[in-house]
Amino acid sequence: MPILQRFLRIAVCAAVLLVGGVLVAESPDFSWLPPAPKLPPPSEKVIRVSTVKELFRAADQVEPGGTILLADGHYMMPRYFELRTDRVTLRSESGDRNKVILDGAESIHGELVGLRECFGVTIADLTIQNIRFNGFKLNTDHNVHRATIHNCVIHNIWQRGVKGVRVPKGVRPPQGCRIQYCLFYNDHAKRFEDDPADTAKTFNGNYIAGIDTMYADGWTVSDNVFFGIHGRTGEGRGAVFFWHESKDCVIERNVIVDCDSGICLGNSMLPEGVEFHCRRCVVRNNFVARCPENGILADHTENCRIVHNSIHDPESRMRRLIRLVHENVGLSVINNLVSGPPIRVETDSKVQMEGNVVQDLGSWFVDTSGGNLHLKGKCPEVVGRAGRIEAVPEDFDRQPRRQTTDVGAHQWR
Description:
- By secondary structure, this protein is mainly beta.
- The protein is built from two helices and 43 strands.
- The strands form seven sheets. The chain has a twelve-stranded parallel β-sheet, with helices on one face.
- The protein is globular, with a radius of gyration of 21 Å.
- The termini are far apart.
- The relative contact order is 0.08.
């Protein structure tokens, strides 16, 4: 690959740092985001581990309500690891997510960490990385409920960072799961050699997403960062992707920067027997920058709301900062700040469209390159231009919204 072409490809995904004459991808600075809340210390039934062998043994021995504490270290995982006990917590003892790394580079399997037949499990304060297929695999076809993934790093996962699978009839859909304060990022766009299942004859190197779940019931995806999740040809799936009759989910306060697709409520494939993709889901107070395939997508939805988001991509190649396609019964698109091309309405459904501002306002944002879409001044096109709505009582920073509030995710002080 020519040097200039290689430079441009890296630059699409990240800032570029020259080290020893080699171009190295570097993540934007996300230190402006608040730190994740610390979990309370474990009170009982603690198993401490410092080796891979001890970790696998602990998964078999831990009792309901127990905690597995991982010492700082780099754990080369030889195979898939699974938890099957209710209310277990798996976490780093130090609380530093960068100091406990579960690495799948040498695993014989394509999936790294899984849950099955359990409820109330929490995984926190650690990194998973380098696996061909799924990083966190929620086997929701086998009764996984109320799982929490908190303050984790999901790095170089080449199909799905978090995967919730199809649920057969007779199995209760996965309820009440939370994915929060996590960082999802990849070092480069997906290549054929990253995933042997994704070929030119299947998905052409674009079968990749951050979170992909089906039949989610009452899930929350909040306060996460997604960066540099790209398919081989720039046609990857959503950083956040809900479909197959997901309902009553909330997607809020996420920062999504330089991914192929941002937040996707559904897609254009509605399989036989599936009535809708998303019902009564709310997308609110998110920052989305440069996600050209779709910034925010609604596709085969019912009574969903896209409200008070800030999306920036004035030079978007697909011009899809917000895209509404196929049937979207009862959809509301209200008080969004769309900094770039206009909202793409490709649906025949009647959509409630109110209070959206569509204009390139990049000069009013703190740092568009890093996805910091806070207002840096009293922008007259935005400030005081919206009425407070019940579905969005706070802004991106959790500040209560005034009765006369501002368009977009951030309410100017």
